[in-house]
Queue: 2 jobs
Job 1
Amino acid sequence: MTNRGIPSAFLRTTLHNGIGRYVCQLQRLTIKFCKEQKQSRGVRDFIENGLVDFAKNNPSVAVYAQVKRHRSPALVAEYLNGKTHIIPVAEKEAAELLEWLDFLRTRSGEDLIRMRKSQHTFSPSIQGAWTPVTNKQVFPPDFTFPNNELFQAHKFTESATDILQRLARKSTSKTD
Amino acid sequence: MVTPSTHGVADRINEQISQNSHGRLFAVIYIGGHQFKVTTEDLLLIRTNRRFPDVGDRICIEKVLLVGGKDFTMVGRPLLNNVRVEATVVEKTLSHRKIWFYFIRRKGVKKLKLIQDFLTVIRINSIEVSEVEDDVD
């Protein structure tokens, strides 16, 4: 499938996150698992050993463990923008589960779709947008073309010849 | 035709910096192998790895190539050391699933991979510039 055919979005954050302080976007985390089946074994292991540490390290996240008998386990994350992300974790080890939790914690909850631009700005230009006459020499209305002044080399300082000519011009104007 | 000398330019820039009258600044930073023209409150999407600082961490971007205001622009040779650009890590996520498909017709060769990159979103918080020394001869 081509890139044009898939859904896309522009870069954004919920409620201008990060302009003031950073707010964790993950609000609620539900771990659904079964007490009996083999495919929930890694989840049960994680609930026994790592879940309390995760909840202590992230006090802003409400963590629930929900028993679903004879169903495959899943992580359900709910975000501040109202979106839900479900990750099926059947047959996953506890260590791998922790990585998926870290992924859910650091996300903003926006859909994982193609980004059209890698930058978002509120002020696109500080010095003004470029136009064809930006930084160009402006000629007065009575300026005549072609003009020899335009074809001379740039001089950054006054040369000795220039100084002598200026002095000569000054002296002649005094005598006049 | 005598063009104006560049003497005194640094003094005029320093005057604006000391009085804090330069207004909003912009900078060109180098991060993640790319150059971005940024100003404060910008969002940047960069390709990183998992070892990038955690969300909520404040980072200082040291590779600043250019800084400018309404009336002046300073270009580094190649970097500027009198500019401090600070940013916050806002999000660490994965990209959408990119399809990598390899196919040779009539040969029974068909490979499909779904690739997801690590992405980081940072917010530019501040661009601060200190006074420059006049090294223009």
Job 2
Amino acid sequence: MSKIELKNVTLNYAERKSVFTALDDVSFSVKAGEFVSIIGASGCGKSSLLSLLEGLNFPTQGVITIDGQEITGTGEDRAVVFQHYSLFPWMTTRGNVIYGIKQVNKKLTNQELTAIADDYLEKVGLSGFENKYPLQLSGGMQQRAAIARALAMSPSILLMDEPFGAVDAKNRKILQELLLELWENSEEKKTVVFVTHDIDEAILLSDRIIMMTSNPGRIKKEIPIDFPRPRTGSHLLESKKYLNFRKELLATFFNDISEKIGGEEVAL
Amino acid sequence: MKDKLKKQLNITNLLFIVFLLIQLLPEQYSKETYEINIIIFVIGIQVIYLLLSFLNKKEEKMETIQDIIAISYLLIIIWQLLTSKSAILNELLFPAPGIVIEQFIADLPKILEGIQSSIFIIIQGYLLALVTAIPLGLAAGWHIRFGNSFLYVSKFFGSIPPIVYIPYAIALLPAFRDASVFVIFAASFWPILGATMAGVFNIEKKILDSAKTLNVGKLSMLFHVMLPAALPEILMGCSQGLGISFILLTSAEMIGGKTGMGYYIKYYSDFGDFTRIVVGIIVLGVVVSILTYFFNLLQSYLLRWRQ
């Protein structure tokens, strides 16, 4: 049985006089322990899709199940990393992680909580920054802390909504490899749904890419990525297979965008 | 050493010397003006200032202190020039600084008692407003439908100058103390409530989403997420409420009180004792400034997580 399953999911937003269809008849499934990226241009509904998985929003039609159970709201089985504001700015880095752990395990003593939090902060390379407030950290470090909090809550599913979208290019590479390392080396592999608009990021990280097209948001193509793991960015760049594959993907991706532009008669 | 001397060549020290020179001018007021008091006072400040400037290494903080002292010197110089040193102003209406200090020292026990009484009343009324308005504001801000109508209600009540509650309060609560606590409560309640609700409305939606995905419980959501997220705005309402409280209490004391600095000023104004009126005004200003200073300290501690 698949971990996550979407069956004919449609999501409409009511606008003043019309209805905006953000997602139109979307179906796919994710296996346990699989890393799936959802990629598409902005406005294709990929973040809306993730909000359904987060349990913050509900489909107009269709069903989403996790382990066979329909989603009725947010849940302890899922942890989320957003692009911004995942962390609470009034809590220290350690305070944020502890607050997260407390929501899933209320019995731990303060000492145990601190130990677990510091352990995860060390894993993401934030030792020495435990008592800093998020606004005192760089964007990349904030995302590290958000990942630490998500992992410390030991969910079986990790939902990531363009988590590295606001991080500079160099730090983004470092964070991608950190995420890969944490994911590959965890005892029980987490199921990850990762939203991005960066093709290289998607190829590097994923077992499978789901490419979406916009207006209305639909699945355009599902592409399995079978480059051997463990992967690193520099390693991939050396392989010819990767370069060809990337070219093909980019063509499919941009083909969609230019179609849209042509269809709407937008003058460039 | 030369640098240190050069550093002392500043406006504060220059004004201090100007002040000393002015003391050479003959007095023009007919009554005793106790000039020695203001001379001792200014020399005392100058000694403290010099000690601070030699001990303190933080340049920026010292600059502010230095400027505040310079402005105080300037005001004292102008005050003296207009009163005892020239008699440009009427002697009965405008006492010289020295005599104000003399009166202050003589009345000190009465003044301290008055300040204590005022501050206790303010603390009671203000705390009552804090513990009711903040939870109510958080809850109202959360329930959008309830909150929208509530925002109008609070705007309506907030726009009424709270001074109009004084006659009612005095009629209903015969003890002046209780009536004053009620008026302070009524005055600070609405700005704090309004600021809390506005603070909750303005919380970044993604912060709330992030909290929801953590499966935060209702109480934790209110007090660990919404309260700190709205705190910057809540504190603005609190500071506004504190300011209104002082204005109101002083008015209440002037109208119906038997204690406090408002009463002190009103009582002596009936006798045309302007020296004591000036004492009362200065004491009030100093007390409110000190309270505001501590409020700001608390505020920057509570908001230390902002850059």
